[in-house]
Specification:
- It is a single chain.
- By secondary structure, this protein is of the alpha/beta class.
- The protein has helices at about 20-30, 70-75, 90-105, 110-135, 155-170, 185-190, 225-235, and strands at about 10-15, 35, 55, 150, 175-180, 200-205, 210-215, 220-225.
- The protein has a 4-stranded mixed β-sheet, covered by helices on one side. A two-stranded parallel ribbon has the order 1-2. A two-stranded antiparallel sheet has the order 3-8.
- Helix 1 (about 20-30) runs parallel beside helix 7.
- It is globular, with a radius of gyration of 21 Å.
């Protein structure tokens, strides 16, 4: 770890979720006195309770992807869309300026630059996690290193995944195409094997045509573990 201030402090962390508890642990390891304040009945009782717990170090890429502005307009009318917009009645102009600035970053050049910055932070986080597990050999929270699976529903999404794979490869996450098509029978047989020990597996399954495509990343960086169990173990 590292000590940025060079002296010990008494620090208060608000929130006993996975981020708050991990932050408190790191600060205590540096010799600081830490108090954690939680409004719930116990730690990890909010967002961290049912979090997926993915440690997808090779998939920390920018959401500012070319085409997102048009997709965002369609998402506004979908019930389960990944993007929701609630107009700020007090400062609507400020909100619109933020959206405009975000959409301006949705170019291929900005996407690659921003993703490279995010991946560097991601791999720093990976190094910190390795140090934590080394310092706490008895830590048990169903930690797994079995890779990451991403499902593509169309050929267009697979093509976009291929472009992302090139960017990930340039950033150090090795990706290669294993199969361009697969029958439904072969898919059911292969699905029992996945997830494999890899960094990322891209899967495209077109149900009408009964085909699927896999794009496989060979570096073992994809990991997972229940955020709730991790938090309760670290408290």
């Amino acid at each position: 770890m590292f000590n940025l201030c060079g002296y010990r402090m008494h620090i208060v962390v608000i929130g006993a979720g996975v981020i708050g508890v991990t932050t408190a642990w790191a600060l205590r390891m540096e010799g600081h006195t830490v108090d954690v304040i939680e409004r719930g009945q116990r730690p990890a009782d909010g967002t961290s309770y049912a979090n997926a717990g993915q440690l997808s170090y090779g998939f920390a890429v920018s959401w500012g992807v070319p085409g997102v502005p048009l997709k965002a307009l369609g998402w506004l009318f979908q019930k389960n869309a990944p993007f929701k917009l609630r107009l700020d009645r007090k400062e609507p102009l400020r909100q619109m300026k933020w959206l405009a600035a975000m959409f301006q970053q949705c170019t291929q050049k900005d996407f690659e630059r921003n993703s490279a910055d995010m991946l560097s932070i991601s791999y720093f986080s990976k190094e910190m996690m390795a140090r934590l597990l080394e310092a706490e050999p008895g830590l048990s929270f169903d930690y797994q290193q079995r890779g990451t699976l991403q499902l593509f529903r169309s050929r267009a999404e697979l093509d976009a995944g291929r472009r992302d794979a090139v960017m990930l490869t340039n950033a150090g996450v090795q990706c290669r195409l294993l199969r361009t098509s697969m029958s439904s029978t072969a898919w059911s047989q292969r699905s029992s094997i996945l997830p494999c020990r890899c960094s990322a597996v891209f899967i495209c399954r077109t149900t009408r045509q009964g085909t699927a495509a896999l794009l496989h990343a060979s570096s073992p960086t994809g990991r997972a573990g229940p955020a709730c169990s991790f938090t309760l173990t670290k408290r």
